[in-house]
Fold this sequence. Notes:
Radius of gyration: 20 Å
Oligomer: single chain
Largest sheet: 9 strands, mixed
Amino acid sequence: MKGMIFDIMKFAIHDGPGIRTTVFLKGCPLNCLWCHNPESKQNHAEISFIADKCILCGFCASVCRNKCHIIEGKAHSYDRSKCLRCGACTVSCYAKALEVIGKEMTVAEVIAEVIKDVPFYETSGGGMTVSGGEPMAQFHFTKALMREAQKNKLHNCLETSGFAAVDKFMQIRPLVDIFLYDFKESDPERHLQCTGVSLAPVLKNLVELDRLGSKIILRCPIIPGINDRKSHFKKIANLANRLTNIIEVHILPYHPLGKSKSLRIGKKYPLDNKHFPEELEIGKWVDTVQGLTRIPVKKA
């Protein structure tokens, strides 16, 4: 069984307890306005092009079957409409201006990478985290990967938007030690506008996982001008207070890195005018939610 992977990050410290290896899967049914991993949305390989890195060597133009790359003077144009995403142009791009994002890997190949750092997991209480994109969009691969990790006695975290069929969550639940569960927007209409999907199944799956005893960290991305409302903070706290098995609430401040990533894969980023929020502002968000719940709240 193979999955489409776009990154394996070692020594991750924000994706669950301890030192972890985070496996990022490509493909997501959501279309969040603020997505900081736009390269994770499509479930196929994509070509990243950073024009500023190009040294105009002409290799890409010489090997491209569809003549997608044109070098004229000091300019390099790339016609994505003709691109087959074969990756031939990236093979000897000495400057790394062109790279393939996304690679098919087997469960065994991924686990082989993950278990290299077992000593760090053992000393820190870490393990493997599967993220995305949305891991549940590659359900069978995610389930097989987490089962293999469990066989290797690894601590498993699953980062999810919660948007998948409830029966799939019930199947994968025994393999997950902690769910890193996104709560993006508390107003159903706003949720649909901001993410492209309904809030109802997200809440339904969360409540059901909690009812069955799954440990949960609620992860809340906060984007200035979009969901940094007092009413939303209150609903985050109210939701946390309803859950029996919640460990923490994490406030995830918006960052605009998705803009440059979008440009690299030829996409337009919807929130062009957004910037990093100030630390003082982030502190106020955390304090506001913490003042309404007994559950520990922290910036992540």
